[in-house]
Amino acid sequence: MFPATAPLQGLGGLVGFVTVIFLLIAIALVYSSVVIIRPYQKGAYTVLGTYRGVLDQGIHFIYPFVSDVTRFDMRTQTLDVPRQEAITRDNSPVTADAVVYIKVMDPKKAFLEVDNYERAVSNLAQTTLRAVLGDMELDDTLNKRGEINARIRKELDEPTDEWGVRVESVEVREVNPSKDVQQAMEQQTSAERKRRAMILEAQGERRSAIETAEGDKQSNIIRAQGEKQSQILEAQGDAISTVLRAKSAESMGERAVIDKGMETLAEIGQGESTKFILPQELTSLVGRYGKHLQGSDVKENGHSLEALDFDDETREMLGLDDIEEILGQIDEEAEVDVEAMEEEAQKIKQGQDSGLDSADEMIQEMDAEIDDDSSTTDVAGGPDDTTRTSEVDKDN
Question: Which residue windows does the record flag with biased composition (Basic and acidic residues) (predicted)?
Answer without folding.
Answer: 385-396
